[in-house]
Each structure stands twice: as structure tokens, then as C-alpha cells.
Amino acid sequence: MILQERDARRHAEAVAAARVDELNKKQRLVQLLLAVSVAANEAYNVSDAFRATLRHVCDFTGWPIGHVYIASEDDPDLYKCSGIWLVRDYKRFHSFMELTKQTTYATGQGLPGLVAQKRAPVLPQDFKLEQQPRYEIGEQVGIKSALAVPVIADDRVVAVLEFFIGEIVHLDDSLDEVFATIGKQLGRTFERQCAEDRINGLNHMLEQRVNRLAALRDIDHAITTGVDLRTTLAVLTRHAQRRLGVNGARILAYDHRSGDLSTAAQAIERSCELPGPEARQFDDPALIAARSGVLVSLDDLEGLMDNESLKIMLDEHWIKSYFSAPMTASGQVIGIVEVWSVNDLKPDEDWIDYLQAIAGQAAIAMSNRGLLRDLERTNIELTVAYEATIEGWSRALDLRDKETEGHSRRVTEMSVQLAQELGLPHEQIVQIRRGALLHDIGKMGVPDHILLKPGALTEEETRIMRKHTQHAYDMLSPIDFLKPALEIPTYHHEKWDGTGYPYGLKGHDIPLAARIFAVVDVFDALSSDRPYRSGWPIERVIEHIRSLAGTHFDIRVLKAFLRMKGFDNDLDALEQLDKSLARAA
Ligand code: C2E
Ligand code: SIN
Ligand code: SIN
Ligand code: FE
Ligand code: FE
Predict the structure, then answer these.
(1) Which of 51, 53, 56, 59 for a ligand 2 pocket mutation test, highest count of atoms within 8 Å of Cβ?
(2) Cα–Cα distance, 209 to 384 (Å, whole number)
(3) Residues of CATH 3.30.450.40 domain(s) within the chain?
(4) Distance 190 CA to ligand 5 centre (A)
């Protein structure tokens, strides 16, 4: 009897202990997931997130090796060792690491390839290590089984984590899900990093462009304020040299009758000289550009250079890149801008555009004998460059906030259409187009955790979010060209009844462009998915914006919008509302 009782108690204790064990295990698993999740969110970059994850998993399991395979950029179906490792005993595993480093796997091949194909973790019991090319060395150093986890970003397997184990293990099937979650977590970090890289790349490009535009404006200023020609050309060559990142820039005057080139201005770094046209004893590339009227680069000259002395001279001065751009005025080539570098430049379109813009400015300066001064100097090159910059910014913003992708483009199209519907003049519509493209550019200054927050904003977050109109003003107002386009970015959250922000303007005090835009913005925002809610059906959107007539929106603008969208029933009601509001006021 007593014995039985003791057995029963022992049994109960064992059950309890097993349960505690189980609970501990679960708790530890939760801790692992949490640790990986925090690491993935806080990591400075993807490599750090991978490294921290390897460490957490190896700490958790006691396994000796973890490392990462990454899909190649050129061929997303090919997985290469990324050089990110966690190894507990480097000496022992050295030869295995060396072999792994050299092995790549296509989708379906080996353990990494299998995981990429399956798009789910492969547990040790589901895979035979003997199939691995690394098997023999693995066996020598005491590796007995492996686990692999896919990292999925943008619905694609972008990387595979591999862990190696010194014993034959059989993992609980439920761990499958835990590791899948870890892979997804890393995938999100990966996506975020890619978005950041894209934006940084774009911003760098835009920054360069803006610097170049600023330089062109200086030049413009020099020309229009009648600074003497010599100074203007000197400014031009200096700008060309700095903004194009070349060692030398020279402006040559071209005399049609004699066919001679002569130096008009130059800016050259020390010990990077290229003799001027007066001293050249060969088929001058600048002359080729002057005669043909097209841009000439060294690559274009390959076939033309029967004269060895050009090559010799370029070699002598270590010059690897050379460009000459013709300066045309009234259909005639009047000169050349030539630039050169000791580096092998790989110019992009922007660079070439800028070189040609400089040549255009030089042509205006040189032929500025009354005739060209009177020509409308809207300067096509300048305008084109500005428009490209605006669109680039606008795209960069939509990239950051994936949910709003296409928002800027759509609201721009609708605003232009609505402005036309309301009969606005062309000049104003041009500004509306620019303003609409840039309306939320100020969100660049709002941190990710607020902009991309999946839920409602707190009071403090709303306060920060509402600064986006001020940020926009600060970013854009220094650019003369954009001043007339500032109304939308600055005032698009003002409301007709004066309850909007940032200034609480009322009625007609709000610029018409902003009143037009407000309707379009809210219409498109409500129709689209946002991180904090999904898009509404169109009927509900229409009903909602209609309910804001006279409070948020200008009724006349709203009516035109509804007509444009084909929701023109019931406009009489708005008419009545408009009249009664007018009477009250
Ligand atoms: P947005 O998403 O482009 O929205 C532009 C405007 O459309 C909003 O200006 C608001 O007037 C209207 N709107 C958008 N979604 C809704 C909605 O679900 N309900 C209603 N009634 N109106 C809506 P607002 O409120 O000044 O917001 C400016 C920006 O602030 C928004 O641009 C968005 O980026 C951000 N934001 C606003 N509320 C939230 C939120 O609850 N969570 C997050 N994460 N962001 C928010
Ligand atoms: C780490 O990368 O976090 C540790 C590296 C190592 O243990 O080898
Ligand atoms: C994200 O996880 O996508 C955004 C989180 C952040 O960077 O604040
Ligand atoms: Fe906004
Ligand atoms: Fe918007």
C-alpha cells in the first residue's frame, strides 16, 4: 500500500517534472524567437542580423557551426557562401569551412539548394548529409548532421542559413515552425535594408544632380547679370571641372572660316595638363567634334585615330578619358567644351547631360551679342534636369513607403486633370504638377517607425507626422525653380473651415492649388491600402469625401472632382449647401 502510494507520488512528480521541462523548453524557444526578432530589428545591416541570429541559434542548441549562403545578384538561383560564420572551434573546422567557401549550389542542389526549392526549413532527420559534396571532410571533423533555414524576402529565397551538428539529432517537428519564423524575420530585415539601399543610392544621385543644378544657376546668374565674358567662361570651366569630377576642362572658340580652335578659358589641376589646340600636332578630337557637331569621346575615336600622336600624347599625360562637347548657337558650332581625366570615367546619362548643359551655357555666354539675350532663356537643358530631379525625389519617397507606391503619380495625374476641369491656365497647371509630385516629400523627414507604423498614431507621433508640410517647405524653398510649386506641399493639409494644419488657414486664404490637391489626396489615400488600414471601396470613399463638403473641402472644387469621377448625381445638394454656407457667411 505504502509502496503503491510512493510509486504514484513518484509518477506524479515525474509527470510534473516533464511538464516543467516542457514549459522550460517552450519558454526557451520563445526566448530564442524574441532574441532573433530583437536582433533582426536592431541590426545595423543585414550581415549583423545574420551574425546575431547564428549566434543565438548556436547558443540555444549548442551546435558548433552556423553560416550563410546568399543568392547571387546576377543569378538568383545560385547560392554562394557569404563569408558570414559562427564557428565555435575554428582550428577543428578550418578545412570544412575552406571547402564550403568554394562550393556554390543551384536551386535544388545540395542542402542549400534543397531549402531554396522547398522554401521551408529542412530538419536533420529529413536530409542525408552523405549527399553533400562536403561530406567526407565533414565526417573527418566530426560533423554528423545539419539543419538549414531559408530566408524569404519579397517572396524570394534570398539566403539560406546552415547549421552543422556534431551528433545525429532528431529535432521535434514543431521546431520547423520556429525556424521558419526566424527565416521570415530575417527576410523582413533584408527587405528593409534593400529599400534603404535603394533610397540611399537615389539620394546620392539626386544630391549630385542638385549640386550640378546649383552650379548651373550660378552660371546662369553670371550670364544674365552681364559679368564679362572672360570671367563667365572661367566660372564655367571651374564648375565643369568640379561637378563632373574631371582633372581638366577647357573652352575652345571655333572659327568657321579658318577652321581654327583657340583656347578661351580653362581650369586644370596641377600635373594633369593636356596641351591646348594651338600646340596639337594631330587629328584633334575637338576639331572632329566641332566639324561634326556631335559629342566625341575617346571610345568614339578608336577607329578614327590613324594619327598615333594623339594616343602618344594622351598616354604621356596619363589621360584615360576625354570628351569634347560642341557649343552650338543659332545652329552653328561656335566652340567646344573639352574635359579630361586621368581616371577611366564611366559617365552615366546625367553626367553627359550636364556636360552638354555646360556647353549650352558656354554657347549662350559666347554668343551673347543681343540676339540670344532676347531669346526666351527657359533653357531646355535646365528645365529637363529639374523635372528629372523632381520625379526622382517623388519616386524615392514612394519607394520608402511601399504602401503608397504610385500614390504620387496618381494624385499628380488627378490634380492636373481637375485643374484643367476647373479651367486653370497652363502656367499654373505646370506648377500644380510639380507641387503634386512633391506634396509629401517632407515625409522624408519622418522616421520609419512612425511613417510605416501599422496602427493609429499617438499624439506625439501625430505631432511629428504633421511636421511633413514644414519639412517640405524647408527642403524646397531654397530652390528658386520650385518656389511657385510650393503651395501644394505647404498647404495641402489645410481645411476649408480653418481646422487644418500647419496654419489653420480658412476658405479662400488657402491657395486654390492646395484646395484642389486636398480633395485628390484624401480620395487616393482612402482608396489605397495604408500600413494602418486597408483601402476603402470607392462608394464609401465618395460618400466620405462628400460628407466633408464645406468643412474639409471647398465645395466648388469637390463638385468638379465628383463630376470628373462620374459621381455627378446629387450635385444639387452640394449646390444648396454651398448657397446656404455663403448666406451664413
Ligand atoms: P496619407 O495616408 O497620404 O493620408 C492623407 C490624408 O488623407 C490624411 O491626412 C487624411 O486627411 C486622409 N486620410 C487618410 N487615411 C484616412 C483614414 O483612414 N480615415 C480618414 N478619415 N481620413 C484619412 P492626415 O490625417 O493629416 O495624415 C497625414 C499623413 O499622416 C497620412 O498621409 C499618413 O502618412 C500619416 N497618418 C495619418 N494617420 C495615421 C495613422 O493612424 N497611422 C499611421 N501610421 N500614419 C498615419
Ligand atoms: C560572431 O560573429 O558573432 C562570433 C564569431 C565567432 O564566434 O566565430
Ligand atoms: C520595419 O521593420 O520595416 C520598420 C521598422 C523601423 O525601421 O523602425
Ligand atoms: Fe501630406
Ligand atoms: Fe499624400
Answers:
(1) 51
(2) 12
(3) 29-196, 226-365
(4) 27
The confidence score (pLDDT) of residue 418 equals 97
What is the structure's pLDDT at 303? 59
Nearest-atom number in ligand 3 for the CA of 191 is: 3
Ligand 3 centre to CA of 406 (Å) is 21
Percent of the chain predicted with pLDDT > 70:
86
Distance CA 368, CA 570 (A): 60
- Give the pLDDT score at 382: 55
Q: How far is the CA of 493 from the centre of ligand 4 (A)?
A: 6
DSSP 29-75: HHHHHHHHHHHHHH-SSHHHHHHHHHHHHHHHH--SEEEEEEE-SS-
Centroid of ligand 4 to alpha carbon of 582 (angstroms): 28
Distance 84 CA to ligand 2 centre (A): 9
pLDDT of residue 371: 37
Residues β-bridged to residue 148:
122, 162
Q: What is the CATH number of domain 29-196?
A: 3.30.450.40
The structure's pTM equals: 0.48
Residue-wise pLDDT for 128-172, tens only, equals 888 788 899 999 999 999 999 999 987 889 999 999 998 888 888
Its CATH architecture, for the domain 401-584, is: Orthogonal Bundle (1.10)
Q: In this structure, which ligand is nearest to the CA of 84?
A: 2
Residue 378's pLDDT is 40
pLDDT of residue 225: 63
Tell whether ligand 3 has an atom less than 6 A from the beta carbon of residue 434: no
In angstroms, the CA 399 to CA 238 distance is 35
Q: Whose CA is nearest to atom 25 of ligand 1?
A: 493
- CB of 542 closer than 8 Å to CB of 565: yes
Residues of the chain with pLDDT under 50: 369-378, 380
Q: Where are the alpha helices (DSSP H) in 244-379?
A: 285-292, 298-301, 308-316, 349-366, 371-374
List pocket residues of ligand 2, CB cut-off 6 Å.
Answer: 51, 55, 86-87
Neighbour-count burial for 516-543, b at 16+ CB within 10 Å, e otherwise: bbbbbbbbbbbbbebeeeeebeeeebbe
Q: Pick the ligand that lies closest to the CA of residue 500.
A: 1
Q: Which of 152, 147, 160, 192 is nearest to 46 (CA)?
A: 192
C-alpha atoms less than 13 angstroms from C-alpha of 253 in its C-beta half-sphere:
14
In ligand 3, which atom is closest to the CA atom of 452? 4
In the chain, residues under CATH classification 1.10.3210.10 are 401-584
Q: Return the CATH fold of 226-365.
A: Beta-Lactamase (3.30.450)
* Backbone conformation region of residue 504, classed left if phi is above 0, alpha if psi is from -120 to 50, else beta: left
- Specify whether the CB–CB gap between 327 and 366 falls below 8 A: yes
Give the three-state DSSP class for 10.
helix
**SS3 letters for 315-352?**
HHCCCCEEEEEEEEECCEEEEEEEEEECCCCCCCHHHH
pLDDT at 198: 66
Nearest Cα to Cα of residue 60 among 221, 225, 178, 181: 178
